[in-house]
Design a protein that fits this description.
The complex is a heterodimer of chains A (344) and B (261).
Chain A lengths: L2 H15 L4 H4 L7 E4 L2 E6 L15 E6 L5 E5 L6 E4 L5 E5 L6 E9 L2 E8 L4 E6 L4 E5 L18 E4 L5 E4 L6 E5 L5 E6 L14 E4 L7 E6 L4 E5 L5 E6 L3 E3 L3 E3 L2 E9 L9 E5 L5 E5 L6 E2 L2 E2 L12 E6 L5 E5 L8 E5 L1
Antiparallel strand pairs in A: 1-2, 2-28, 3-4, 4-5, 5-6, 7-8, 8-9, 9-10, 11-12, 12-13, 13-14, 15-16, 16-17, 17-18, 19-21, 20-21, 21-22, 22-23, 24-25, 26-27, 27-28
Chain B lengths: L1 H16 L10 E3 L4 E2 L3 E6 L5 E6 L10 E2 L4 E3 L3 E10 L8 E7 L4 E6 L30 E3 L4 E12 L3 E7 L10 E8 L4 E9 L9 E7 L6 E10 L17 E8 L1
Parallel strand pairs in B: 2-8
Antiparallel strand pairs in B: 1-3, 3-6, 4-5, 4-7, 7-8, 9-11, 10-17, 11-16, 12-15, 12-17, 13-14, 13-16
The chains are: A mainly beta (344), B mainly beta (261).
């Protein structure tokens, strides 16, 4: 059966069914709201208005919003590595055919101009581009630190850019180091590295710079396999660990006073499409889990968290726009386009 | 046909209400071990406003009329299977979470086993009879992991007795290349012949994908046995079947506990 036939058959069958489920109709069904406390959302899974034949996606890895309000999606589909939407899900433009391992997408406003940093797992490189895809700089594997013998050992997953332009790259699928460069791409230092001690990381999948405490800016880094974020100073000194039991946290995304993160999967349900989205307040307390368990604390540590509703499969990143809407991009989830969630 | 029912139901509900209906995730089952001397405690976790957990202990699929989970469940009895589902208004009920608990069997003096892969050494010489097992997490430290062609386990009981069954807990986690073995052979030591004598076997098929689970398999002897010395020989899958991404590679065998009844 082709797709057209299927839709035809199922809609006529469904029309017939309208008269049948009276038992169900008697139930008053409110709109389903995801999340807890003051961070609750209504979901729209049909936000993207693209035709898959024309604009296919593989893994939808990360999303950002630029200064024009546009939503920029990065996928490892080389027919269109970058898809640019307006907030209503309409296509504005696409570009990019040369990023087969497109994974990390970070936007930085450089003296008034938006620039993008793309981490490519397959190319073992970080590329800095304009928002329309012109390459401005490329960072190769960090030979200078003497810990890598070949490019293949370096699999960058994310970048974060400090206000002074310093670039932090996490080698999240390689050796879990964080490599810090100046804005020109000159190596400054490296820290982290794979291990289970405090200052080490296990799958340093994401990173951001947290300026919420003006006097003490810091780096927040995912240690995804350890179900935690770890904080470091901007010069790489370990500060503390924020345990998030059960949650495979992808990159932290800070908007306003809150930190948002896609949770790829539930620790207790690995490989079972068990992701959700978590939201932490400025004190790093979990306040809401979208499609996940109600946040609870015992002795200042969150109770084990887990997916409760099968809304997402493997959420990989969140983007929060200027109107506080949330977009969720997913990895390995049947080539789905991002979902949009509106606050209630 | 059964497979078509769920998507069809989803469509039906969506068209009726003009909104999307989502399925709940099965609840989390928390326990120290599925093996116990007297009793075990089962905690069920599912913290979702508007939803609750219903469970059964008789092997039936839970419905909204079955037991409502409110506090940890005490498990006793020889072999108890608990099935739990998350159910809530406005949601499709979850799939079923299942766990089976086993009372300890005959007293075991010693179990010797083939050297496991160093990555999965279990927790010491007593690992197959320490009453600790049944955690699905393959890195829980309780599992012996093998990627060899055969695995041999000899069991010394404290006393001679008649053997009704030999139970082995095996992990099925095919996405991590961990399969049930092709077969398990049971032997007992015959003093009169000074040799191990075949007493039964179980054959498993991996031709179709199986869910991730702890699969406790009980081998029932094909004859009357009176002994204090048994042997199990496992034949792990040498070639992963064609449906799996790891096709033609050697599969893993994971075992964590043996009971003799």
């Amino acid at each position: 059966m082709n797709r057209k036939q299927f839709i035809k058959q199922s809609s006529s069958a469904a029309a017939g069914m309208l008269f049948i489920p009276s038992m169900l109709r008697n139930q008053k069904m409110d709109d389903m709201i995801l999340g807890h406390n003051n961070k609750r959302y209504r979901i729209n899974t049909k936000w993207s208005q693209l035709s898959f034949e024309q604009y296919p996606v593989k893994d939808c890895h990360e999303m950002v919003q630029d200064k024009l309000g546009r939503i920029i999606l990065l996928t490892n589909e080389t027919k269109n590595n970058v898809i640019i939407y307006d907030k209503s899900g309409k296509l504005i433009t696409t570009w990019g055919h040369e990023y087969p391992g497109a994974h990390g997408l970070t936007l930085f406003n450089e003296n008034g101009d938006d620039v993008l940093f793309i981490c490519d797992n397959s190319r073992h490189q970080v590329s800095k581009t304009t928002v329309d895809g012109r390459v401005l700089m490329t960072l190769d594997y960090p030979k200078e630190i003497g810990l890598y013998t070949k490019a293949e050992e370096y699999v960058p997953t994310e970048t974060a850019i400090a206000r002074n332009g310093d670039i932090y790259v996490t080698d999240g699928y390689g050796k879990d180091f964080i490599i810090q460069y100046d804005y020109k791409g000159n190596y400054i230092r490296h820290f982290g590295g794979r291990g289970d001690g405090d200052k080490y990381l296990m799958n340093a999948h994401g990173i951001c710079v947290d300026y919420r405490d003006k006097n003490r800016p810091c780096l927040v880094v995912s240690s995804r396999q350890q179900n935690a974020f770890k904080r470091f100073t901007l010069d790489g000194v370990y500060i503390d660990t924020i345990p998030l039991p059960g949650a495979w946290v992808c990159r932290p995304v800070i908007k306003g006073e809150y930190l948002y993160a896609a949770v790829l999967q539930t620790q207790a349900r690995q490989g079972e499409q068990s992701g959700f989205v978590t939201i932490l307040d400025k004190n790093f307390n979990v306040v809401s889990n979208l499609a996940g368990s109600q946040p609870k604390y015992t002795n200042n540590t969150p109770d084990e968290m887990y997916q409760t509703i099968k809304v997402f499969q493997y959420p990989h990143d969140v983007c929060i726009d200027d109107e506080e809407n949330l977009y969720v991009a997913q990895w390995n989830s049947g080539h789905v386009y991002p979902y949009k969630l509106q606050p209630v | 046909m059964k497979k078509l029912m769920l998507p069809f139901f989803l469509l039906m509900v969506q068209y009726s209400f003009g909104q999307q209906v989502f399925q709940l995730t099965p609840p989390l089952l928390k326990y120290q071990s599925i093996f116990y001397d007297n009793k075990a405690l089962l905690e069920i976790k599912f913290d979702q406003p508007g939803a609750e957990v219903r469970y059964t202990m008789n092997g039936n699929e839970p419905t909204e009329k079955d037991l409502l989970y409110t506090k940890p469940v005490v498990i006793s009895g020889k072999r108890i299977r608990v099935k739990a589902k998350s159910i809530g208004k406005g949601f499709l009920p979850s799939g079923t979470a299942t766990v089976e608990f086993f009372k300890t069997g005959k007293a075991i003096r010693k179990i010797e086993f083939s050297t496991p892969n160093p990555k999965y050494p279990g927790n010491g010489v007593g690992t197959l009879h320490d009453n600790i097992g049944g955690q699905m997490d393959l890195s829980s430290g309780t599992w012996l992991g093998y990627d060899t062609d055969t695995v041999t386990v000899t069991i010394q009981l404290k006393e001679k007795g008649s053997i009704k069954g030999v139970l082995v807990d095996i992990l099925q986690n095919e996405s991590n290349w961990i399969f049930l073995p092709e077969q398990v052979l049971l032997y007992y030591y015959d003093d009169t012949r000074n040799a191990y004598v075949p007493a039964g076997k179980e054959v498993f098929s991996s031709e179709r994908p199986a869910p991730k689970q702890c699969s406790a398999q009980e081998l029932i002897p094909n004859q009357k046995i009176h002994t204090d010395n048994l042997k199990l020989v496992f034949c792990p899958v040498k070639k992963i079947p064609g449906w799996h991404p790891g096709k033609d590679n050697h599969a893993w065998l994971f075992i964590d506990e043996i009971k003799v009844y």
